[in-house]
Specification:
The protein is an all-alpha fold. It is built from 21 helices and two strands. It starts with a helix and ends with a helix. This is Heme biosynthesis protein HemY.
Amino acid sequence: MKLKWYLLFGLLGGLIIGPLISKIPGSTYILLDKTAIEFKNNVALGMLILAIVLLWLVWILVRYLLRTSNLTLNWFGDRNLRKARQNTIDGMIALAEGHWKTAEKLLAKGAQIRNTKLINYLAAARAAQEQGDDKGRDHYLHIAAKTQPDAQVAIGLTQAQLQMQHKQYEQALATLSHLRDLSPHHPYVLKLLYQLYARLNDWQHVIDILPKLRKNRVFDTEQLSSIEITAWQHQLQKHAETANFDKLSAFWNGIPAHVRKSPELELTYGKALAQLQQDQELEVLVKDSVKHQWQDELIQLFGDIDTPQPDKTLAYAETWLKQKPHNAVLLTTLGKLSLKAQLWGKAKNYLEQSLAIIPTPSAHYYLAQAYNELGHPIQAQEAYQNGLANEVKPRREYDLIGDLTEKR
């Protein structure tokens, strides 16, 4: 539209200026060395105006060409970006669907977009690992680090996760140790460290980082409590395997008081004391434990205590009947302690009460002993047989003699 107006104004100007120029008198000379070229003034002025118009048209043409070139370049640039973006999207879809090779190829191609290069290379590293290509994985992670040096923690976390997935625990530990130096309070670094130590059964290091886990709120209170108890329990079991009571006792006393009061720790320590035949320590432990929580397994261990005064131990245990009058484990324990105190009738009564609630092989066994001491061998044999029958429970009951007869 502008060009049409320019042409119209130029035509009108020529019609007006032309006659005026033609009336200009005189001549104009151009000297070239010793040669003089003469132009009439009206012709010279007309040529000057024509030259200006031509220069103006050339300028318009150059501007148009430059603008067209930029549009062309932008079109090709936008096309490449669109293609790279689509490759990234398709690559992420392939990764989610488990098409690892396709995902790796598309994500590597799509890494042309500056804003998504890091994501592309990290995802490509995961795709490479899923194909068992650890070298390819490390290659993409190396490129990601060079592409975005300020994302060392993100890249390192991805590397540690992938190494742990491939059970490359030594490499993962080195990676996480480096990340911990870079960011000592990073919650996810600490979480991965805990997971790695747990897989390595390195519970002492779990105990060492517990304050960091708590301070940085890596886990909620319930989870942290469970981790703490599990870690101390594993370490306690490790010390129990040394079969050295002094070392075990010293370690037990070094455990935080609130952890020692947990059922898991008390039971683990109780089993260790029973194995080491530390009956006096076990008796104290069980009596203290019952005051704040009840554990059938500890009560069962209490019945195996070899005490010099079984009648007093029995009398103390009988006070628990107020708390648990119908507990089969407690009644069996009282029957065992009665046998140790040579109170055969009392043992028989407690064991029969226990069997009435839950028939167990151990209760039948101790009841048979009570019958023997009371002079009832036939009833003792019946108790032994009942205990054996209770121990061996076939998936289906059948008449063995009848089956054999039918086969004949």
